[in-house]
């Protein structure tokens, strides 16, 4: 049997992207976010999901350098990596899709540091879906170290 990859497909800009399902905790409607001053421009604020405070990043800002327009379809994909849990604000969370290994190609752009988080392109007849590694995505974001420290301080204050 061919190896496959289960992913959560979402829309950012006019393109389709996917996170490996292993990293996805949940998909939420965007509700009740608190903005925090002096954060990097891709951080829209923090929100509470299942009792945990997590930073929210605007994936349109990260990928296309423009603010997302929050609409009815806008979703928050909660991702957990070894370093940090984050909420990724996306235009639409579309589906859970199993990508057969034979449909997955390595992008030629992988050497480019700013897009090193795009680890593959799923090539289907009528669509292409770019696979994003959340761990790498977080590592490429400028100012993420400060956000991790801020979130750790918030957690410590809650437990004191």
UniProtKB/TrEMBL annotation:
SUPFAM superfamilies: CheW-like (SSF50341). One of its GO terms (cellular component) is cytosol. It holds the Pfam family CheW. Residues 4-143 form the CheW-like domain. It comes from the Bacteria. InterPro entries: CheW, CheW-like_dom_sf, CheW-lke_dom. SMART domains: CheW. One of its GO terms (biological process) is chemotaxis. PANTHER family: CHEMOTAXIS PROTEIN CHEW, CHEMOTAXIS SENSOR HISTIDINE KINASE-RELATED. This is Positive regulator of CheA protein activity (CheW). It comes from Mesobacillus selenatarsenatis (strain DSM 18680 / JCM 14380 / FERM P-15431 / SF-1).
